[in-house]
Amino acid sequence: MRLFTALLPPAYVLDGSGQLADQVAALRSLAGAETLRWTERANWHITLAFYGEVDEARSDGLRERLARAARRGRPLRLRIAGGGHFGERSLWAAVQGADADGPGTSG
Fold first, then answer.
1. Does residue 107 carry a pLDDT above 50?
2. Where is the Phosphoesterase HXTX domain (predicted)?
3. Which of 17, 39, 50, 68 is positioned for an S-S bond with 4, CB 3.0–4.6 A?
4. pTM for the whole thing?
């Protein structure tokens, strides 16, 4: 199976109000946007790592290690810091840490 690690945005980010919703609405109003297949908000995520094809037998161990790492971390505050596209099929948004010392750091 194809696996990746991702952060799921909190509900208030996906609820249709705020900066992200405004930016997506602007993209949807561009010429030709009606021909695109837009991903449902419930499937929006921030990809952290792409593993490609992983044997199902190895996926449980990977899931457990990632869960342990997530429990040791602290909540992240992120903001949109740009964006672009991969080819003609995928849009992406760059994120940046809103904390003074940045995401993934301690103290």
1. no
2. 19-89
3. 50
4. 0.70
